[in-house]
């Protein structure tokens, strides 16, 4: 996040995450609800990021993958209802396309998407590092 004392404005990505704040940073996470493909496997990735409480044992899948380099062309997840295009690595985009095409609607936790990568405090305090996040 931009430092309020330095006068720098938050990035568009940080402003996007401010619209979906974690309710209790120690017991809540963001998950991604991906919509099924509407017109074949190459349709855009569309999803909604929402906050869930780990106390309620929400149902989701966790994705672990190699982030890989950011490359051109860029790949995007269309986040609704904010109408924000979240940039993804090619590896992440490919994995999400494959999962969506195979399973249809899916709720998933992906660290590069569900954690605000511009916020050092959030990256280091997210309960995603806890062993129960990826329980079977």
Domain module count: 1
What is the alpha-carbon Rg in Å? 15 Å
- Secondary-structure element sequence? HEEEEEHEHH
Cα shape: globular
User: What amount of the residues lies in strands?
Assistant: 25-35%
Name the average pLDDT. Answer: 83
Low-confidence stretches: 1-5
The percent of residues in helical segments reads 10-25%
Layout of strands and helices, then pairs:
Layout: H1 12-18, E1 28-34, E2 45-53, E3 61-63, E4 75-79, E5 84-88, H2 90-103, E6 106-110, H3 111-114, H4 120-125
Parallel strand pairs: 2-4, 3-6
Antiparallel strand pairs: 1-2, 1-6, 4-5
What does it look like?
This protein has 136 residues and is an alpha/beta fold. The chain has one domain. Helix content is 23%, strand content 25%. It is built from four helices and six strands; from the N terminus they run αβββββαβαα. Strands 3-6-1-2-4-5 form a six-stranded mixed β-sheet.
At a glance:
This protein is α/β, with parallel strands linked by helices. It has four helices and six strands, in the order H-E-E-E-E-E-H-E-H-H. The chain has one domain.
Features:
globular; alpha/beta
């Amino acid at each position: 996040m931009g430092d309020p004392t330095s006068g720098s404005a938050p990035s568009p990505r940080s402003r996007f995450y401010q619209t979906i704040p974690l309710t209790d940073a120690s017991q809540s996470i963001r998950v991604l609800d991906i919509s099924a493909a509407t017109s074949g496997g190459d349709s855009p990735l569309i999803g909604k990021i929402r906050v869930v409480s780990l106390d309620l044992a929400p149902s989701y899948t966790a994705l672990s993958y190699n982030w890989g380099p950011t490359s051109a062309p860029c790949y995007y997840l269309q986040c609704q209802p904010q109408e924000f295009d979240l940039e993804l690595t090619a590896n992440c985009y490919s994995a999400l396309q494959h999962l969506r095409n195979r399973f249809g609607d899916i709720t998933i936790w992906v660290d590069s998407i569900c954690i605000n990568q511009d916020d050092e405090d959030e990256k280091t305090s997210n309960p995603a590092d806890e062993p129960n996040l990826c329980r079977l």
